[in-house]
Amino acid sequence: MLLSEPLLRMEGISKRYGGVIALKEADIAIRSGAIHAVLGENGAGKSTLIKIMAGVTAPDEGRMLLGGKDVAFSSPAAANAAGIVSVFQELSLIPDLSVADNIVISNPPRRFGMIDRRAQRQIAEEALNRAGASDIHPSSLVKDLPLSRRQMVEIAKALARKPRLMILDEATSALTRSDVEKVFSVLKRLRSEGLALVYISHRMHEIAELADDCTVFRNGRSIESYPAGTKTDHQVVELMIGREYKSVFPAKPGVEANKAPVLSCHDLSWGGRLADITFDARPGEIVGVGGLDGQGQRELLLALFGVLRDIKGDVQINGRGVRLSSPKEAKSTANSIALIPEDRKTEGLMLSMTVRENLSIAALGSVSRNGIIDRGAEAARIDELLKLLAIKAATIDMPVSSLSGGNQQKVVIAKWLMNRPRIVLLNDPTRGIDVGTKQEIYQLLRKLADGGAAIIFYSTDYDELIGCCDRVLVMYDGTVVRTLEGDDINERELIGSALNIAARPAERRATP
Amino acid sequence: MTIGTSGKWRFWYELNKGTLLAAALFVVMFVIYVSNHPAGFTPNVVQTASNKAILLAFVAMAQCLVVITAGIDLSAGMVLVLCNCLASWVVVGTPLQTGFGIVAVLVAGLACGTLNGLIIIFGRLQPIVTTIATSAIFFGLALLLRPTPGGSVNEALADVFTSKLFGIFPTSLVVLVATILLVWVPFSRSVYGRAAYAAGSAENAAYMSGMPLKRAKLAAYALAGLLSAMGGLYLTFYSYTGEAAFASGNAYTLYSIAAVVLGGVSLAGGKGSAVGAVFGALAFRTIGDLLFVFDLDPLWQPLFQGIVLMLAIGVGSIGLARVRNRLEWFQ
Amino acid sequence: EPKVVSGPAADPGCMTPWASDTQFLQYPKKEGPYRIALANGYIANTWRIQMVKTAKAYAAQPEVKAKLKEFKVVSTGEDVPAQISAINNFIDAGYDAIVVNAQNPTAFGPVIKRAKEAGVVLVAFDNTLDTKDAINVNVDQKGLGVTWAEWLVKHLPNGGKILEVRGVAGTSVDTDRHNGITETLAASGKKFDVTEVVGKWDDSVAQKATADAIATNGPFDGITAQGGDTGVVQAMMDAKHPFVPFGGETENGFRKLCAAHAGDGLMCSSAGTGPAQVAVAIKTAIAALEGQVIPQAVKLPTALVSHPDFKKDQDYYPDQSDNFFVGNSFPTCGINFTAQEIMGQTKENQ
Amino acid sequence: MRQSIVPLRLRGRDPAVAIAFACILLLLLGGSIYSSNFLSPDYLLQQLKVASFLGVIATGMMMVILLGQIDLSVPWTVTAGAMMACAATAYGTSGSFLAIPFGIACGAAIGFVNGLAVAYLRIPSMIITLATNAVVQGLMVVYTGGFSPQDSATPAMRFLATGHTIPSVPNGVLVWLAVGILAVFLLTRTTFGRSLYAIGNRERAAYMSGIDTRRIALLAFVISGSLSALGGVLLAGYASKASQSMGDAYLLPSIAAVVLGGTHVLGGKGSYLGTVAGVILITLLQSILSVMQIEEAGRQLIYGVVIIGMLLLYGRQKPN
Ligand SMILES: Nc1ncnc2c1ncn2[C@@H]1O[C@H](COP(=O)(O)OP(=O)(O)OP(=O)(O)O)[C@@H](O)[C@H]1O
Ligand SMILES: Nc1ncnc2c1ncn2[C@@H]1O[C@H](COP(=O)(O)OP(=O)(O)OP(=O)(O)O)[C@@H](O)[C@H]1O
Ligand SMILES: [Mg+2]
Ligand SMILES: [Mg+2]
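The joint structure predicted for all components is written out below.
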């Protein structure tokens, strides 16, 4: 299977960032007409590898052969010209430009030297159609689209360039299941058309469905390449993490039903986007929020965190009615809420500040007196957390931007734990995170719950909801359509209610 | 997929909201102005207003080009002054000489802008200090050219450019519209223009998408120099002389920023259009004109101008004060 | 379209011709009362504020007021085109005469043309216009430089080191005054070593520049400054620089210091023309409209006071602000405001 | 993970600051070729005194720039601070006593308006501060024209700017030192400082971390206004009087000083030591050029070229 001459071969690639070795003598061979999955933990060097393929960074050592000839790309444009196109993990869309502008961005159709807007619209519509996203209007601005739609645009953009080799770095991490299916059928069609595809994902079942070849990375080295299907999931994970691998999810101890709820929501509504949401969360409980992406889950968390204005309805914390007007109020000791936001780069982290500064930013109040920071107390708290979360950083005085994606996410979670919150809201915290880290996060959530916190956990990953949550609120169109509990939390019920198939019309009326 | 026309208008409106607001602001203010003017809405009054406003309009367009890339050009006013001084030497003589003179002035402006761009892009310096420094250089050159006010210009040509077409329509407005059509429209619809927007909106993403960022930014700065030079040329036409005026150079720079913001161009980059900036400049200039029609104590006039400017800015920000999702504050 | 006539002027005591070859003009008589406008440029400094207030006070005097239907003042800032436009607007709005303190003496060619076509009388003062088609109420800027330099030459018989504090670079006033100083010093035949710094007519800028000059090039034997003089003296005192002869402007603060330290060697010649020249300009405009004979260029007397003649409450006001300019009266023109009256009155302005 | 005694931002980690100080030495050595007086203690102390006005003003500017904003109302805030302080003396002895606090309070009020508009109405600072500048200018013109202004500095103001508490060290320098120490403390040791950097880095993330971003921004502008006014008070003390437009010469130099000192104009990055270096650089450069007998044109050219040269030496941003 690996015998045919590969389209792209990389040999002995090394790359270091200051003291950090991102890649060390990595090899990979990618052939046409196949999908090549790249697997590895966070920080294993996957993104760095594809950045080198795509001409974003140059390797320190090693060579790259495209169709048997030595190549070196000085810029993404050069790689594009050679037929290599990638969908980056960090989206590369321009928020203030329209979808159509973005899709044709590298080579817009021209007439008399000016961009031909009509032709551009056509190309965009075609590309969106091919990517299975014809619901996106080509004239809408990218910044007005939700994350999942943006990823679809990103894929359409890559398709519009008619590549020879297409790279997708966690391109489906924010997609809903139906989108994923559409994208998969597109990818399969491309494969049959003879394209070479590189696919990076932390979702094992996606890889099982798609991949023809696989390469596992660990600590910057390419550990092993093998044809898909020749190893069990278990073996793969062990290759990735380099140690034995046990069950992912911690056991659910079950909650005492008679405990007073720490957070209770009654008929919560906001504009046209949230309607009549009612639920309770008790200490020690992990409440999942499910449903298709963009059904108001994000708004619900923001509403609870004091970000939205003009909220109607009733929110009680410890039986006390509250009306929060800012995150500052939400995190105050009286309310003690924390929100792990969806987009770590813009809402979670100050990228160019150090890990230390990021960790203590939300808890400044508790490590300072009269506005003056107590550095001893700060350092002590940080030490405690670093032990708890095992964040991989050379020193905590380096900018958080130089951590890998997964470790950045851990910093976002850790910074809120500094506050010892009693209500933790999580907005898809495991997006783009490897299994090892995910496992740590699940364990951490359970530990927090056991410590008496109530956790509201929105996830786009059904396995997570099933494995972690004591209860799941399924949302549709801004309201909770079903609450699943116990054995009802299974994939069939979750998907059924997420699509709001009128399986149980009575339920809908029961939770008005 | 078919897209309804109403949908198309909605996107168009979203995109051009800032420009429309600026246009509305200008129209309202101008109507207040002419309806109180003793001479009324006559070609002369419009001509006077347009001759005065066009300088700022050019500098505002220049500023807009740079601001779109998330940069800023604090030397725009000094480029205008420098080009004014240069023009007062070279835009004279036979029609041919005059023509060459005009070209020389425009090339000089282009060169100033290019210098800014080269330093900022290849020196990787922050635009704000770079242009503070180059503005000192440009002013120094202007002083070398004109240690004292003076010089002259081809008066026949100057009169043509500041008079009325067919006795009704101000030539300066025609030149302004022509400049928009010949400079702004091609630029904004070219690959470089798009890359300029992208650079302002999300530079890293634009780099990843393989856009020609450096050339786009260079083009923006260079064209900004050219447009400021147009302003300098017009200053010469309107005043027949050159003067190395430090204060007015700085004033034009600051006013151009105000005009750009009034015109709905985001200082964070990536948003807005030169047409909006032009309306912003016209509106800003009308604030000064209002002094003429209202009978204010002379000592209260500066205060009046300040307050009207504040109100105009306030109008533009009404929408933001009342968002329902507080995260929208941070866009 | 004024007629060129032979002199003298109707009011020869006030309207002295600039030079012997200055033309005398007679505009066609218009029926009063008149609409007169003042197109000012920059406003935010004390000189201009004082000037605008003097203009208003002059126009409010009963005998002047009787001749005026309207007196309007507009300040357009530093920007020349704005001032040109203001004048255009005044022409379009049918004003009879426009008085202007020009931001730039050479920039008003097109407007002068228009004013002439429209039969509007244009009178420039302070920063006058380089033209024969408008009436100039002139300050002899170069002559001021000459006065100051002559003062220094007189007190430094053996020449010496001079500090010259200049004004705003690129303006004609600065250049004229500088040329007057330079030429006079050169013509004296003595050896003068001049250090130039830029004070921008601003006290704190001048003070800093002077302090630096003293620290690096000092001490000096004489000083001349064309503005910001209070700051210059302040810098001398801060640096404990010995007091030396000083030729300077007419700021009240400067004169206060000159009077206070006359005994210590601060011998000053303080010369300039106060903001009241606006009143002369208005008076000239009215005379032109009334069809009287006037010179095309009026020469203003300079208010010159030199050591040891500084008289309290006449040449300087110890209790008043440092910032205003003394010399606010032109007795021969019947203009007798004291600076104190103008800047000191609060009620009049309410 | 032991903490070093020296605060992180002051540790000599930032090469820009070191190079900036090297540039200062270079400038002095270059100047001494022209006149050996440039190295005399008298001259240097005098430069420090003059630098202290810019230094105080630039401190406020730096806070605002760290926030990712800018304060263009500096010129007339400086003037208003000076004029209002002097004006207070019209109200007898208690007026003279309160002159300095009153001047600073006026600056704080202007900063408050700026801050309110920027933080609560979300108007871009670059334009609203331009507008407040115009309004304050208008107010000062009205005031000067209408109210028989008192504009001599009080002895206390004179003392604050030019007096000596420590022999031969002007008090102005001590004021700057005090302001500087306070600023370093604020920036490195307090929640306010941390929040300032956080907001400058990414306001959205700072807000979501529960920082009251609006209050911090408001405070930064109030500080900037107050310090501008304090600069004006010092300047009035130095000149022994207040006058119109005395602040005009401080806007662009204060921005240039902050940025020359390595602070990022878009906020979030910068050290106070860098600002100190920037202030001294700008002051020295202006002073040396002022006394060299070159035409103004030449001075401007050299000023511009030297600033760009220095920036190219160390102000380059990382490749993106
Ligand atoms: N610009 C950079 N500066 C410093 N270190 C970097 C930089 N980019 C990557 N690294 C480091 O290189 C290593 C490999 O990172 P890379 O992004 O390739 O990992 P990854 O496999 O993509 O991880 P993830 O699954 O989290 O995306 C990490 O330790 C990371 O911290
Ligand atoms: N050559 C380059 N040109 C432009 N930007 C670069 C270059 N190298 C790195 N970057 C940028 O530096 C930052 C850090 O790099 P990188 O994305 O590899 O870090 P990371 O933490 O490993 O990310 P992740 O693991 O989430 O993929 C990113 O914003 C990246 O875009
Ligand atoms: Mg990655
Ligand atoms: Mg990574």
